[in-house]
Each structure stands twice: as structure tokens, then as C-alpha cells.
Amino acid sequence: MAHDQRHDHQHGPTHGDTHGHSHGHHHGDIDWATMGPMLERNAELAAPQNREIAAWLHTWQPEPALIADVGSGSGSVSFLLAEIFPKAEVLAVDPAEPLLERARERAAREGLTDRIGTLRAELPEGIGALPPADLLWIGRALHHVGDQEQALAALAERLAPGGAIALLEGGLNQRILPRDIGFGRPGLQTRLDLADDQWFTRMRADLPGAKAVTEDWPTLLTEAGLRHAGTRTFLLDIPAPVSATARAQIISELARRREMHDETLTPEDLATLDRLLDDSDPQSLHHRPDVFLLSAQTVHTGLKA
Prior knowledge:
With 305 residues, this protein is of the alpha/beta class. The protein has helices at residues 32-57, 76-84, 97-109, 148-157, 188-206, 217-223, 244-260, 267-277; strands at residues 66-70, 89-94, 116-120, 133-139, 159-175, 227-238, 293-303.
């Protein structure tokens, strides 16, 4: 595939592999070579959900020639899109070179180098480097841009005539345990949601060129010059008992949130999290039979005339 440009980047999280609200840190703080496997494991768990989304997108784009996966991470969703749209070329777009290298290595292993390429680009600076695409998949990357309206308008300009944007924003935070887990104060996950929301508000405020905007994504798509074609929410439902892969991912995600909110949560809630993460504790996530994974992701589509 011809598109394999490289662009320097400064910072900005990417969530293409997580396909979920995985509140991360800035690029400069993350060892992406180490994060790659965790992101791919998460994408593996979310694959049924992503397949359902991709099948829904056939409504507007049955045979796109070029798909750009913006905020692709190591390209797990890019490969899924290549499978769902077998005639399309797919461009994995991300600022983290170690993750793009993983995508290129996988494309070589699977004999897909003629269909899957990479573009190193930061949002919003690198938007102009995107070739005209028939389908832009933007998986929870837009909210890490200070001026979301401007970035969305710039992305809309990169659509080919008749092209579609699939914007993954919104939905519901994941649940992994009952409300009362038998120790600690009930409602821990609700309080984690609040801590996430506070973190997210600070993250947005600290972004370069941060601009507050009502998160009415259909209206924002319309204001970007597109026709809002549809909004739908997709469920990921992995009931207990979960697989070893799902359990490992759930533990990794909760450990990351425990670290993020070390100065936000109460000592009682931190102690509860420590028990949940302690492999030697029979009530931890490592051993509990009631661990599950339930989340909802919302997708908004916009069409270019």
C-alpha cells in the first residue's frame, strides 16, 4: 500500500485498540512498546462488538475503497475492518511509532502489506496528511484534541465524496463486579466513574487549545458539514465466569485506574482496590467467580455529500 508516511508527534493518547474509554496518559508518559500487547488483548475481547459496528456501517459504505482508522493504536481494529471490507485498503493512523510498527509486523506476517498501511500522524496537526477516505473510523480519539469542532471539520474534509465518518464517542463505563462485593463500601465502581470523570475534565482542560463544547455529537457532525445518518449503541457482554484473557485484561485496567486515582479516592476505597488486585487474596479479581465485563459503546455516523 502506498500510504506509509511518518510524522513527528508530541503527545496525545490513542485508544484505537482499546475501543473503550480507557483513560490514559500522554504519549510521552507511556512505553507504547510495552502497552501494545495489552491494547491488543483488549481489542480481542471487544472484537464481537467491533464486528457488529462494522457490519452496521455497511448500511452507508458497502464497499469503501480506502478506510482510515484514526487513532489506530497497533491496528487491531484496522485488521478487523480489512476483514469486514475485503475490497478495501486500510490505513492505520496513529502518532505512536512503536504501535504502528506492530501493525506493520502483523501485516507482514498475515500477507496483508498490500492492503494495510500506516501513517504516523498526530491529531489535529497531521489531519492534512490523510488521503481522501471513503470511511473514517475515529475510535475515541477526538476527545483528546483541544478543539474538537475544528478537528472534526478537518476530518470531514478528508472524506471522499459520499464518504462516511464513524465516530465512537459516548456510551457507558464498563462494569466488572456486583455493586456489593462483600467487603469495602458498596458502589465502588460508581465512585471510580466519578474519579474518571474528574480526571477527564482535567485532561480536557489541559489540552493545547482546549475549547469547551456541548458533547452533542450528531450536531457536531452536522456543523462539520456532514449529514448525521445514524446513532447506535453496541453492547459488549462477557458474563461470569470470564476467560483467563478477559480476567487478565480486567485486572490490568483496574490496576491502571488504581494508580491514576491514588490521590483522589478515599483510603477505604484504595484499600478495597488493593484487595481486589492482590493475587494472594481469595476475594481478589484473580480468583472471584463473579467477575464479568459489561460495557456499551455509542457510534455516530456522518455522511459527506
